[in-house]
Amino acid sequence: MGQTIKAICYGLALLVSLSACNGSSPSVPVVTDQVKTIKPFVGAKMIGLYKTKCAVCHGADGAAGIYNAANLQASRLDNMSIRQILKTGKDAMPSFENEFTEKEIGQIIQFVRSLRK
Prior knowledge:
CATH class: Mainly Alpha
Radius of gyration: 14 Å
Largest sheet: none
Order of helices and strands: HHHHH
């Protein structure tokens, strides 16, 4: 059943993302190369991971809040808490335990923390 929910979440995220790109949903931000300008010290692979897996709900700047996604700019979670959420999921966010390596999880944590205001 967990895989079904995960598939539904991915499907919904894809639909939102595609409709945003087509301009049919102006309230959903389009994820563009602006992610590159947020934190230029982050590698291209990390930017790609964030854009494809995270920015769909969190937005390019971490504050989009699509599907009630946490505002990463305001988050004050420690590294272990972020790691736990990435591995197990939370609310509408699916688990990414089988999609990211430990190194990638570390890079995502670094990027998420760099979005803080």
